[in-house]
Structures are given as C-alpha cells and as structure tokens.
Specification:
Length: 307
C-alpha cells in the first residue's frame, strides 16, 4: 500500500471530513474498557496517601467523566514542581498505568524534595475506546494552546496555569503502537483530506526532546535508566525514528510548544515525551509500565541533582 492507494473507510480521498464524516466515525467507536474501574479505582486506592484533585469534567452525549490529578500531601511552595501526565492519548495504556505505578511505588521517595502533580489519564473517553482522538475527532496532543479545541487539553492547562513558571520537570508518558500505522495515521490523513504516507513503527523505547530548548544530558539520563528495564529503539536505515532525525540513541526532537504538544505546555527547564512500544515481542505490559515509571524517576533524579 502506498500514498496513492491507501484508503480509509470514511470520507472521500482528498477531501477533509465535515460534520457527516465525523458523525460516522463517532458511530463506529465502541467502549472497550472502564475508566471508572481501571483508573478511578486505582486513584481511589491512593487517596489514603495522596491528595486527589478533580480538575474538570468531560461530557460527551450522555457520558460524563471526572478528570483527576494526584498531589503529594506535604506540598511546599518553596519546592520545585514536577508534572507527570499520562493518557493524553487514551489508547496508550502504559502512559496511564505507568503514571499510577510511579505514584504508588516511587512518589514517596521525593517527599520534602519536590512537589508532585500527576494527571494519569487526561483523556478518559479515549481510554475507554482505546483511541487517539476525543469524541470530536480532535487529537488532544496537538491541542495544548490558547482556545484549545480539546476540553481534555484545556482542563489540564487550567489546572497547571498557576504553576506554569514553577514547573522544573514535565514528563509526558506515551506509546507508539502498531495501530498508529494501521488505524490512527490513516484516519488522520482521511480526516484532513491528505494522502496517507506509510512509515515504520520503531521497536523499542524512545524520547522526544524539545528542539527549541534541548536538554541532551537530561534525555540521556532517562534513556540510560529505561535501558535497564526495556530495549531502546534503534534508528532506521535513514538514521530516523518516525521520520525525525535521531540526535542521540533513542532521542528525537520536536518543537513541542509550536505543535501544541502536552510536554510543551509549561516553562519547565526539563521536559520530555516518552514513547514505549507495547507491541514488541520483546516487551510485556509489566515492562512497559515499569519503563514509564523508571523514566519518571530518572527525570526527577537528574533535575534535582546538585550541579
């Protein structure tokens, strides 16, 4: 299949979707798992040890989902803020459960050293559908900007706004999956009336640094920690990962804020987007969750280290 023969079953090739096509797409989405059971249940279990903040509520048709973040109990305005986000793309499972794993198993290690704010599942509607977009066929991870078209993104931005200049570290937990190539990229091309350009899926973990404010030593520290848990994605034959030049083993760069990406929403000195590959025959769900948690710990450890 190439760019001229690729076809998505909704819409007309070369013509961007209108309301009818988006409605047809929405009608095909099916609830496949429970945000209340799998995510909110875990958050409730952590209430004995952490403060839980409801920072918004999503309503799509007759469905309502509360949006939650966790904070350490000993919040101290004199300390730097660490922001951890997961599930901006709801289908990226280890982003959600890796964030929760970090809170459960590692957050206490930073008591008195940093303030932790963790939003483990930014997009609960998409979590339940195992999808990239929200119910309006909008990608929340291209929507972290003023007048955001995604309420998921806007709600998180409102939560973080008072802390934006105090955030030292922001690590946003994601996955790159086989379904990116089989479903989500073709759907994106169809939605926007563009040809689908096939690409490869990297086998392994990688990071997306900020091309406008790169921090190579920080990215390397995260890669080194994760390499002890799961394998790092190699560059392809052109020296690239998902079309971007590899600047160090397992590291590419995007202009995070310009693209409206979650990791670019603050003025954090240290920021990165993780990308785990859960479909690899060399990785298990347990490894993926552990890799995300290890990345968070490494990011905080590097940022807090004396220099």
């Amino acid at each position: 299949m190439n760019a001229t023969t690729a076809f998505y079953p909704i819409g007309t090739p070369g013509i961007a979707w209108g309301a009818a096509e988006k409605a047809e797409w929405l009608s095909r989405q099916r609830r496949q798992r429970s945000y209340a059971d799998e995510v909110v249940g875990e958050i409730d279990r952590l209430r004995e040890r952490f403060d839980v903040v409801q920072y918004g509520q999503l309503t799509y048709a007759d469905e309502t989902h509360a949006l939650f973040a966790l904070r350490n109990r000993d919040w101290n305005d004199a300390l730097p803020v660490v922001l951890v986000t997961g599930g901006v793309h709801g289908y990226e499972t280890s982003g959600v459960h890796g964030a929760l794993r970090f809170v459960d198993r590692h957050a206490d290690e930073y008591a008195g050293r940093a303030n932790l704010l963790v939003a483990p599942c930014v997009s609960p509607w998409a979590y339940e559908r195992i999808h990239r977009w929200n119910a309006n066929a909008v990608d929340p991870n291209r929507s972290f900007r003023d007048d955001s078209p995604a309420e998921e993104s806007a709600a998180l931005m409102r939560l973080v706004a008072p802390l934006r200049e105090r955030v030292l570290v922001h690590i946003d937990l994601h996955e790159t999956t086989d379904s990116d190539e089989s479903e989500f990229r073709p759907a994106l091309a169809a939605r926007d009336g563009k040809p689908f350009e096939p690409d490869g899926i990297p086998d392994g973990f990688y990071l997306v640094d900020d091309s406008e404010h790169p921090q190579p030593a920080f990215q390397q520290a995260v890669i080194d920690a994760v390499a002890k848990v799961t394998h790092i994605a190699p560059a392809d034959a052109e020296g690239k990962i998902i079309g971007s030049t590899v600047v160090a083993p397992g590291v590419i760069r995007y202009p995070l804020r310009k693209l409206g990406l979650c990791a670019g929403m603050t003025d954090a000195r240290y920021k990165t987007t993780t990308e785990v590959y859960p479909d690899s025959p060399r990785a298990t769900p347990e490894q993926c969750n552990a890799a995300q948690a290890a990345a968070v710990c490494a990011a905080i450890d590097f940022a807090l280290a004396p220099r």
